[in-house]
Design a protein that fits this description.
The chain is an alpha+beta fold. The chain is built from three helices and four strands, in the order βαββααβ. It has a four-stranded antiparallel β-sheet with strand order 2-3-1-4. A hairpin with a 6-residue loop joins strand 2 and strand 3. The protein is globular, with a radius of gyration of 13 Å.
Length: about 100
Amino acid sequence: MIANYGFSATLTAKPGMGNQLIDLLLTGLNEGSPGASEYCLVYLVSRSASDPDVVHVAEGWTSEEDHHRVFAGKAAQAIVAQIDPLLAKDSEYTDYVPVRGKSAL
């Protein structure tokens, strides 16, 4: 499958809560969660090399519609609801149209 829609997000956790934020985001790969969906082709959680409380998420999806549909589900909304209390500020999002690349998970 080819990723036709993607986005990246930068999330800044409250001081000392970066690990907790990463652990929560990684639950998105659990069975029944958004990252485990057949429509999610890339789900990468990274942390800043200079600030352990800054976390980056990159996702690639089969389509924008698939992404919105999956994220409207209960599993995704449960994760999103737990993220906000961990954040020090609003997250920054950038959507994009993948052109070419590689993901081997």
